[in-house]
Amino acid sequence: MNKFKSKIVKVLATSVVLSTLLAGCGGQDKASSGSNSKNEQVTLTMLIGDTINTPGFQEVVKNIEQDLNIKTEIEIRPGGPEGENIVKTRLATGDMADLSVFNSGSLLKTLNPEQNFVDLTNEPFMKNIFDTFKETVTDNGKVFGAPVSSSQVGGWLYNKRVYEELGLSVPKTWDELMANNAKIKAAGKTAVIGSYNTNWTAQLIILADYYNVHAQEPNFAKDYTAGKAKYAKTPAALRGFEKLEDINKKGYMNKDFNTTTYDQAMKLLADGDGVHYPMLTQVLPVIADKYPDKINDIGVFPQPSDSADVNGFTVWLPNTILINKKTEKLEAAKKWVEYYVSEKGIAAYSSKSKAIGPNVINGIKVADDAYPAVKEMMPYFDSGNVAPALEFLTPVKGANLPQISTEVGGGITKALKGAQMYDKDVEKQAVQLGLPGWK
Amino acid sequence: MSNVNKHMYSYFFIIPAAIIYTVFFLAPTVMSFFFSLTRWTLIDWEFIGLENFKQFFSEPSLMIGFKNTLFYAFSTMSLKVIIGLLLAVFLCSKIRNKNLLRSVVFFPALLSTIAVGVVFNAMMNPTIGIINKGLALIGITGPDWLGDANIALFSVVLVDVWKGVGIATVIFIAGIMAIPAEYYEAHKIDGGNSFQEFLHITLPLSRPALNTVIILALIGGMRTFDLVWAMTGGGPGFSTDLLASIIYKQYAGGFYGLATAGNVLLFLFVGLIAFPIFKLLNRKEVDL
Q: Shortest CB distance from A413 goes to which of B41, B147, B237?
């Protein structure tokens, strides 16, 4: 009996301790948010992908708390389809954060922006933002988002040190590029780095070819959205798949391309063991962070077409900051976004993170200490030899392109068959979105 | 009297259990049959009849799941049965350190599947992985275990067997231990050898254990997702995609109706294969 009693006492004691601990936590929270300076502090929640959380972003968040007295509670989600799912589920269950960052372009359309996000069309701070960006976050004539970073390009990152050693020059045509590859292979180095273990990286040769598609078939995006143009039936578009196949056929990739990861690929490129890496310039800060003495060796050129006259970059527009339509702190959220895209906000951002491409806001120039690769891409922007990637021009994007690219690039599937598979794959997306022209 | 007994407990007693079962099991099941017939965006839906099922059968990247899943389920099952049975016979014989060896065999079953997948992914790397480095020491150039589309699925099968054979072995050991010693004594007196002993006593009399292992391994194999996802993510290309990983990808792509249709198909697929086998196996069971 005594034993039993002491047990009860123990249980009671534990629960008392626990409950005071919990109460303590709650109390502290209140105290910290209430006691802060002049006006009452507002706390906004914000859901972002893991790649957004750069030192520059954190710096802006810190400044916003200091200057506007708005605290930001950051929630990190994974990128890719898993992250998209989290966003979709939270929207569907009405559990979305006040602010969120999501892809602009085709993926944003899958979120039904009009129903879920605040219309920013008439906000004064949107005036300074480039129309090319605004178009990618517009649905039914309304603009829903502000840019979260600079734009970037998809192209061929290359190791300039090795290029100099081997006496190579930047190729203007696909044949010149393949000739360079042959020389690099002969020198015993990996000509093209494949990192198919991170399977989205396999798509780059197809996606970065869009400038060339656009130059030859200016109506491709429109016809593609309408279900009239297909990859397999448009020779200019099919070239992307063929180029991917070409690299594999000639054996220009690292032998273990199927098991190499994104991170390993960056190391190969930085060390010069691999000389070309078809990739987005978002890798630049990562390389600068991990191999600071090598970042100046990295350059970038556009994916060449078959003619030297057509030579330009495919541009990826930045992700976008969105305001939840159901937020109870709309004023604070708008102020947050306004600050983020203001000169102050951008200055804070660039004090910690360098740009990976030109900004999409009027009057913001590329800094003098920009990465060499970013400086290298500027002439193309200045002369207008750039085009947005297809995913910013059409809502139609298939979910299986990474897998199909690894099959074509890995020599499992022929280019034409891959293109046909992809045409079939995008049908699902188009039908799900209810686009006219698809069955 | 019997009447009183019958009504001693009110039907109200089953209400808590019935509510939980309805809300968490029955309702989702019925709903999934319904949503598999729609184009569903989580927010609204449109009834499209059997379109989703048609799509599942017409798209090669979806169809490959049936083939791969069958191969995966039957090959893991047979390897687990064969290796598990041999190990069990060995571990029931008169050997030293029996308990230690039994633990060693069972140990992989205790690990998290994802952890096993991640570790083997690293070990099977063709250039820096420990397996190929080990093979290189004895002069063999190991294959690209997970990168070669022709053998990737088989590599995953091997890891699944390594991880799952412990459970099969334990079930077999229990089955073999339950065989009365008299049979073995009679066999000894008749002067049979140990192979005959295995074939005519151990094998037929551990039939219940064998059936359990077959059914468990088969159903487990058909539902596998975690190991494949951790090791290859279904790649390279679609070469190691199983039904479960394909369904997950449709879900991740936002095709909720299609993913639900896939789950209905997986349910039917498992049922259609497991149920007849279960019937067949049970008929052949003998009493001890």
A: B237
